Amino acid sequence: METGMISVGDDIVLNLVNIESELHRLYARESGSKKTRASLFNLILYTNKEKSDAYLQKVVNSVVAKFPCRVLFITEDDSTPPTLTTSVATQSVTKDIFCEIIRITLHPSLSERVPSLVLPHVLPDLPIYLLWTEDPSIENVIFSSLEPFANRLIFDSEVSLDLQAFSKTILALKSHLHCQVSDLNWSAIAGWRKIIASFFQGKPISLEKIETLKITSYQSNGASCAYLQAWLASKLKWKFQNIQTQKNRTVISYDRANVVLEYIENPLDPFKLPSGTLLDVEIQSTYQKEHRIFKRDPSSRQIYCQYSNEKECQLPTTSLLPGALEGQEIIEEIFYSPLTPSYMEMLQTLSEIPWR
Amino acid sequence: MQDVSHPLAETLSTSLDEERGPNKVLEPCVLVIFGATGDLTSRKLFPALYNLMREGQLPTHFACIGFARRDKNHDQFRQEMHDAVAKFSRVTPIDENLWNNFLNQIYYHISDFDTDSGYDSLKTFMEGLDKKLGTKGNRLFYLSTQPKYFPEIIEKLSKHGLIYDETKVKDKWSRVIIEKPFGHDLLSAEELQKFVLGHLAENQIYRIDHYLGKETVQNLLVFRFANSLFESFWNSHHIDHVQITVAEDIGIGTRGAFWEEAGMMRDIVQNHVMQLLSLVAMEPPNSLGANAIRDEKVKVLQAIRPIDMARFDDFVVRGQYGKGFIEGQNVISYREEKNVNPHSTVETYAALKLFIDNWRWSGVPFFLRAGKRLAKRATEIAVVFKRVPGVLFAKQSKKLDTNVLVMRIQPNEGISLKINSKVPGPQSPIQPVKMDFSYSSYFGLSPPEAYERLIWDCMQGDGTLFARGDEVLASWKLITPILERWQQEPPKDFPNYASGTWGPQAADEMIAKEGRSWKPV
Questions:
Q1: Beta strands in B391-485 (DSSP E)
Q2: DSSP label of B356
Q3: Which of A96, A154, A173, B329 could form a disulfide with A131 if both were Cys (CB 3.0 to 4.6 A apart)?
Q4: Bridge-partner residues for B415, per DSSP?
Q5: Could you tell me if B398 lies within 8 Å of chain A, comparing CB atoms?
Q6: Which residues of B are catalytic?
Q7: Which residues touch B1 (CB under 8 Å, ≥6 apart)?
Q8: Would you say residue A12 has pLDDT above 90?
Q9: H or E stretch including B451?
Q10: pLDDT at res. A329
């Protein structure tokens, strides 16, 4: 096939490299430097937002550092003329190991060409993970072409404009998908779930009598805090009643508890926290007027945990929160853990709440 | 004349005998290529001869004559072949010094295939070369023509004494290389076989299937029979099924007229795919002799269960490519290709499910597929092993991947084995990983092209890598009923797969009925 700049009519320009030749060339180059090519799986990422591109590159760096893989990075960009560009590069994992990244950048009008560029270049016999950062409830020809080949679909609810629709879509998808499903935000709050669960271990009455849950997060549309509260609500079988949304604050009323979600916008962000980072969780229970505060230190991944009740006030303790999208545990959660019933129950709860 | 009284005579003759033995210096010969102005000669045959010459693998006393109708002289032909070699040789640039020595061994002979005078003059010319170059009357005729000319050419060669009755002529040899297809169905193959045997002995006939010349295909025998590890589980107790894929991302190109007569089943499945199948499934031969190996291959073909015509669609799928995208670029449909009937019902894709009814393979399905304009170019054999009992590791992984041994014929030649491994960490997830052997990583050198090996073998008189008559007929016996059924029932849904995909939906359904799926290639 032709390579280079190819005009195919209607002002469409294809800027193509011979991907296979490039892979061979780069392999020969790196092998000459005594490097080994490694790949545990194929990671296909899709985004249609420039902002997500940088975020996804960070995801790729985190993943590749732990698990070398062949990356196929698809970016749809409707701000450009109708072009499609391919390129191939290597990414060093360690000084001795590298893997490959194939990039495809295109105007949405050319998306039907993408499968013919992706599928021939996935490494056979290795799992294919498709990280879809767009709303899966929106029809997309690339998704429908690649999904049948994926061993695992990874979604990011952060990008969804409608969490209710998103959760309904995932619930519906899960029933007929042949492959596993992961959710980046569910993985991102894994640490919080573990910390909260550990502090309520052996205290079922205290749990049952929770009356107020307040979660504070940094910016975002609140996907992480929505997940966390829905998780607790589903575990405690709270019944949704109503939701009130104000600027930077959402109040959800359940039959046995109220949930307050607050969002802080801090233009002076010395710590460069990613949007959606959970900052505080406060839980009040009617049992002995227990009050628990979990407060994240924004400069680190430490959580200060403060407990008090009607009779006493304990000294704070510290727990370490695994970093979102960092660390072997998080990567394992995304790529290996099967979806638990907890996630599905959480989605069910989320699907009943008319988020906007 | 040898001086037998000389004290060193025996030693001298012994050392010379070693040099004249197999795999050493080849016997002199003249190679005549019929259809020398065709594509095969320039793209494959002459580059092969050049590389053989370059590596010292051609006989010292050798000549090559191009036989064709077009009007040209020796020098013109030599220049054309020079340009072809410069373009198509696996090793470039062409070594002009070597070529300048070689071109004196290249000649061109103008004649139609059916003209007696042409063969008379050829004979005279070749006898002249025997005297001039010492080629000793050994003859190799390569029929690089359309199959319809085979009988004519062979008859003329025989009539004009250019091929010898080896029961009577002992001091020189003659061999004929025939390109595929050998017949276009069982009846025509039988007729051609009968005709050819009327003029040649079976051991003088070299039916080329260039797949057999590929290093990776030859390695199938070495892999299976030079490693004790694999033989014990190469059977129905351990193997769940076998998939053989011959996928091309290119279309039919300029071969529209040929393809309208042939189709995928005749052009690829009947020969290349069945060769791969027989090498994977054969029993160990009792020697590496040509007949010992070919005997075992024939046994496999004869053991294949004929297609159940009452359940035809469960066993056979055909397809024709429509338009689509290859590597991001638009491509046209088969019916829009040049010299193709816009309503053509010729298949560009075929998939089969076969069973070999013998002790080794009883109950193991063999899934074969071949197609044009598929998602990528790849030829491979995948041996898929049975699942482990689901007793252990259920917690770590809902469904463990099966082990798969893949022999990549082309490209990225090599062998890989997929196994399951524990991912480091306390949670113990299990991840499939690949152990991989790549030819290019280990051997580095550009391996010989298939035609180099095949021509060299033919000069040696080694027919191992050529199809024997009964092999070809056994293959046609299986394939012909399929072709007849297709002829009787033209397809109504062509084109039924888009270019750049993996073929028609029906092929996925065929394998899914057996509870399996096509392995990504």
A1: 404-410, 414-422, 430-438
A2: B
A3: A154
A4: B407, B437
A5: yes
A6: 272
A7: none
A8: no
A9: helix B450-460
A10: 57
Strand-pairing partners, residue A208, are none
Number of neighbours of residue A326 by Cβ within 10 angstroms = 15
**Residues near A6 by beta carbon (within 8 Å), at least 6 away in sequence:** A13, A14, A15, A16, B329
DSSP result, A294-353: EEE-TTSSEEEEEEE-SS-BPPPEEEEPPPTT-HHHHHHHHHTPPPPHHHHHHHHHHHTS
Task: Compare all CA atoms of chain B with the CA of A334 and give the residue at the minimum distance.
Answer: B429
| B503 inside 8 A of chain A by CB | no
Residues 175-214 of B with CB under 8 A from A: none
Residue A326: what pLDDT? 52
Q: Can you tell me the distance from the alpha carbon of B197 to that of B200, in angstroms, rounded to the nearest whole number?
A: 5
Rg (CA), chain B: 25
**pLDDT, mean of residues A309-337:** 73
> Alpha-carbon dihedral of residues A18, A21, A22, A26, nearest 10 degrees?
180
Pairing of strands A317-320, A302-308: antiparallel
Angle between helices A223-235 and A341-351 (to 10 degrees): 110
Tokens representing B512 are 């899914």
Residue B304 DSSP symbol:
B
As to burial, measured by CB atoms within 10 angstroms (0-12 exposed, 13-18 middle, 19+ buried), residue B435 is: exposed
- Please indicate if any CB of chain A lies within 8 Å of the CB of B492: no
* Residue of A19, A20, A127 lying closest to B432 (CB–CB): A127
Cα distances (angstroms) measured from residue A247 to each of A159, A264, A329, B201, B470: 19, 10, 35, 94, 84
Phi, psi (5° rounding) for residue B5?
-85, -15
Which residues are CB-contacts of B215 (< 8 A; sequence separation ≥ 6)?
B413, B439, B447, B448, B453
Q: What is the pLDDT of residue B501?
A: 94
Of B478, B463, B514, B518, nearest in space to B177 by CA? B463
Q: Does ipTM exceed 0.85?
A: no
Q: What is the reported pLDDT for B60?
A: 87
| ∠ CA B325-B327-B329, rounded to 5° | 50
Residue B365 structure tokens: 């399905």
CA B313/CA A219 separation, integer angstroms: 59
Q: Pick the range with the lowest mean pLDDT from A34-48, A82-96, A310-324, B215-229.
A: A310-324
Residues A227-253, buried b or exposed e (16+ Cβ, 10 A)? bbbbbbbbbeebebeeeeeeeeebebe
Q: How far apart are CA B118 and CA B116, in angstroms?
A: 5
Sign of CA dihedral A105, A109, A112, A116: negative
Residue with tokens 């304009």: B373
Write out pLDDT tens, residues A20-45.
889 988 988 888 888 888 898 999 99
Q: Is B519 on the interface with A (CB under 8 A)?
A: yes
CA B67, CA B54: separation in Å to the nearest integer?
A: 24
What is d(CA B32, CA B161) in angstroms, rounded to the nearest whole number? Answer: 14
User: Rounded to an integer, what is the distance from CA B282 to the centroid of its chain?
Assistant: 17
Residues in chain B, total: 521
pLDDT along chain B (521 residues), means of 10: 40 39 72 94 95 91 95 95 95 92 94 94 95 93 92 95 91 93 94 95 93 89 92 95 97 92 95 96 93 95 96 97 95 96 97 98 98 96 91 70 94 92 76 88 77 93 92 96 96 96 96 94 91
Nearest to A321 by CA among A198, A175, A174: A198
Contact B520 A120 (CB under 8 A): no
Say what the pLDDT of residue A325 is. 47
pTM: 0.86
pLDDT of residue A270: 59
Which of these, B70, B74, B81, lies nearest to B41 by C-alpha position?
A: B81
For chain A, give percent helix, strand, coil, nearest 5.
35, 30, 35
Strands B321-322 and A258-264: unpaired
